[in-house]
Amino acid sequence: MASLVPLPPFAPASESWDSYLARFDCYLQANELTQVSQERKQGLFLSLCGPEVFETARALVAPEAVQATPWDTIQERLRNHYAPKPSKIAARHAFYQRNQAEGESINNYTTALRQAAMHCEFRDLDDALMDRIVCRVRDIHLQRRLLAKPDLTLQKAIEEAVASEAAERSAQEIRKSSSPRLARKPVPVHHEEASSDEGSSSEDDDVHQTKRECRKFQQKSKGQPECAGCGGNHSRAKCRFRDAICRTCSRRGHIAKVCRSAPSDTPPSPTRKSKSSLQSAKESCFALTNCRCPSGTTIGLPCPSCLGAPSKDWYPECPKGNSTLTAYT
């Protein structure tokens, strides 16, 4: 017969006594020793159990020699020493306190319940296990489905729970493996029209930029003294109309807006002007109002040529009283 593979000694810290005895029986079966005499089984066990168990067995059967003690007596005394029978009430209390832990599978939870029920002495173990699974499972949706089944059994409850866990794992894997869709760049609906009107768009941008620069100029000029030459919020020395000719009194040094003289022959307000007249007015407005900021941006200032314009139709770009004008190029 081939040499026997030695059985590891008993380790009380990591294994129960009943489990070690079950492994010893498997060892005998694997080596075809189940039919040997009790004396040989006793000799094999005492040789393989380890020095700690051997010394414990000697103390438990003293003053008799351990070799002369029957095998059944040695098993009983070692079981009472390493695995005394617990209280049934205490065992059931521990069973009822066992809930499914976070991340614990239903199979592991069922196995833990069976281990906790070993000393409970339930009349119907399956019913007790089914009650704990239904009442203490962590998945609330699974619990509702189990409670809705009228003829639920332990096997059906375990199958339903295992299927639910498998479906949840599959769904998570699908979500992880799904690559995010590439965001498409939105295409303008009127792409061709936008391209064709590129020139007009740039002109509109210039107009808005001019208005913004005018607002910045007005904000910066707040709090400064009023100019006697044009009425602006800056000093007389910085006025650009110091050499301008007033259209009301024909004097140099101010404009008609701030002129204190009585108006001379004021021309009647025209309601309509020809295209050439409007163009000449624009050119005159540009000559008087166009300036450049330190940043190089052309902006509009109060227009003296349009101060007497009573009609918006005659000069729509420079409405009367508006201090922000658009520079013409």
List keywords for this structure.
two-stranded antiparallel sheet, 4 domains, mainly alpha
- How many helices in DSSP terms? 12
The main pleated sheet reads as: 2 strands, antiparallel
Return the average pLDDT rounded to an integer. Answer: 75
Can you tell me the number of structural domains?
4
Shape: rod-shaped
- The low-pLDDT segments are 189-199, 268-275, 280-298, 304-329
Fraction of residues in H or I helices: 40-55%
* Strand adjacency order, main sheet: 1-2
Radius of gyration: 52 Å
Protein name: CCHC-type domain-containing protein
Biased composition (Basic and acidic residues): 207-216
Organism: Podarcis lilfordi (Lilford's wall lizard)
Region (Disordered): 169-217
Task: Set down the secondary structure blueprint.
Elements: H1 17-30, H2 38-48, H3 51-61, H4 71-82, H5 88-96, H6 106-116, H7 125-136, H8 140-148, H9 154-177, H10 191-196, H11 198-220, H12 275-289, E1 291-292, E2 298-299
Antiparallel strand pairs: 1-2
Helix pairs in contact: 3-4, 6-7, 7-9
Would you summarize the structure shown here?
With 329 residues, the chain is an all-alpha fold. It has 12 helices and 2 strands; from the N terminus they run H-H-H-H-H-H-H-H-H-H-H-H-E-E. This is CCHC-type domain-containing protein.
Report on the structure:
The protein is mainly alpha-helical and 329 residues long. The chain folds into 4 domains: 17-82, no CATH class; 88-164; 226-266, no CATH class; 267-329, no CATH class. The chain has 12 helices and 2 strands. The chain has helices at 17-30, 38-48, 51-61, 71-82, 88-96, 106-116, 125-136, 140-148, 154-177, 191-196, 198-220, 275-289; strands at 291-292, 298-299. 14% of the residues are buried.
